[in-house]
């Protein structure tokens, strides 16, 4: 049984004060609804400046903090980058790798993503590896091919026994920040294909221990349809994660949906 996971990607949003205000409200709601025993793992990935404050606020609580990116080296002359050692030192447990905005706006390719995944694992961080097709690729009927290719390349430096420490987020690029979510059946099919790819590469049954999330315009009103699918373990949430009440509702709906499965 895989633990459901709901992760927030705040992107370049929230000052330290705003992050702390979110955290206070979110913890109040979470602990009024079961706190420690809440059966959905929650991860918040703020901008780097807010990581230490959030780690301090969530210490001993049922909420983990993640980075939104990392560089694969431990230290050195890499102006503007952040290392896995620094993320761990600040208290992060997770790190988003290969988000489509980084691939598109900052020229990240699969080779770089693979090195980042390796480095995260080497330093005890759980990578949330983002894959997904563009609208053009979908229209050309290449969704499976593109996602399979990304999974094969991005996990090329991973060992089979490390699969349980990895999370894959299937995020169709055309669904991110557009308000147009994928059809749950379509997302489910792609995620099944991702699982089959992982089984082919790492051995039969490996993907039973791999959490795969859906991401792209998730909100409290549509999360249920995704979470009812056995192959979908959670969501990576952008815009709707900025509001503590809405983000909590997404986690709550996820809990209810998985309780039905
Ligand atoms: C994301 O950025 O990973 C994302 C899924 O964004 P949104 O929920 O806003 O579509």
Automatic annotation (TrEMBL):
State its location(s): Cytoplasm
Signal sequence extent: none
For this UniProt entry, the molecular function terms from Gene Ontology, in alphabetical order, are: triose-phosphate isomerase activity
Q: Which residues bind substrate?
A: 9-11, 177, 217, 238-239
Question: Which Pfam family, any one of them, does this sequence belong to?
Answer: TIM
What Gene3D superfamilies does this protein map onto? Answer: Aldolase class I
One GO-annotated biological process of the protein:
glycerol catabolic process
Q: Any keyword Phosphoprotein?
A: no
Q: What class of enzyme is it?
A: isomerase
Enzyme Commission identifier(s) = 5.3.1.1
Q: Name one GO cellular component term.
A: cytosol
InterPro entries on file? Aldolase_TIM, TIM_sf, TrioseP_Isoase_bac/euk, Triosephosphate_isomerase, Triosephosphate_isomerase_AS
UniProt-annotated catalytic positions: 99, 171
Catalytic function, reaction form: D-glyceraldehyde 3-phosphate = dihydroxyacetone phosphate
Where this protein primarily resides, as one coarse class?
cytoplasm
- Name the keywords, alphabetized: Cytoplasm, Gluconeogenesis, Glycolysis, Isomerase
Task: Identify the pathway.
Answer: Carbohydrate biosynthesis; gluconeogenesis; Carbohydrate degradation; glycolysis; D-glyceraldehyde 3-phosphate from glycerone phosphate: step 1/1
Q: Which family does it belong to?
A: Belongs to the triosephosphate isomerase family.
Function (record text): Involved in the gluconeogenesis. Catalyzes stereospecifically the conversion of dihydroxyacetone phosphate (DHAP) to D-glyceraldehyde-3-phosphate (G3P).
PANTHER family according to UniProt: TRIOSEPHOSPHATE ISOMERASE (PTHR21139)
Q: How does it assemble?
A: Homodimer.
Give the protein's recorded name: Triosephosphate isomerase
Organism, scientific name: Candidatus Fermentithermobacillus carboniphilus
Q: Which gene encodes it?
A: tpiA
């Amino acid at each position: 049984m895989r633990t459901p996971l709901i992760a927030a990607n705040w992107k370049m949003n929230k000052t330290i004060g705003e992050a702390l205000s979110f955290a206070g409200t979110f913890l109040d709601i979470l602990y009024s609804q079961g706190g420690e025993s809440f059966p959905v793992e929650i991860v918040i990935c703020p901008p780097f400046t807010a990581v230490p404050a959030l780690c301090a606020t969530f210490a001993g609580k049922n909420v983990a903090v993640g980075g939104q990116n990392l560089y694969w080296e431990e230290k050195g002359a890499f102006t503007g980058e952040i290392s896995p050692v620094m993320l761990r030192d600040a208290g992060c447990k997770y790190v988003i790798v290969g988000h489509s905005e980084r691939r598109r706006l900052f020229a990240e390719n699969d080779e770089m993503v693979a090195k980042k995944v390796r480095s995260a694992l080497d330093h005890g961080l759980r990578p949330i590896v983002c894959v997904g097709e563009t609208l053009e690729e979908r229209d050309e009927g290449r969704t499976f091919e593109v996602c399979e290719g990304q999974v094969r390349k991005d996990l090329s430096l991973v060992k089979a026994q490390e699969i349980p420490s990895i999370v894959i987020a299937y995020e169709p690029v055309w669904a991110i920040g557009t308000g147009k979510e994928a059809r749950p059946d379509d997302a489910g099919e792609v995620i099944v294909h991702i699982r089959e790819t992982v089984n082919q590469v790492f051995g039969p049954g490996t993907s039973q221990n791999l959490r795969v999330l859906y991401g792209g315009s998730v909100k409290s009103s549509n999360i249920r349809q995704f979470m009812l699918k056995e192959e979908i373990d959670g969501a990576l949430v952008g815009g709707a994660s900025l509001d503590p009440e809405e983000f909590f509702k997404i986690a709550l709906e996820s809990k209810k949906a998985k309780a039905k499965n």
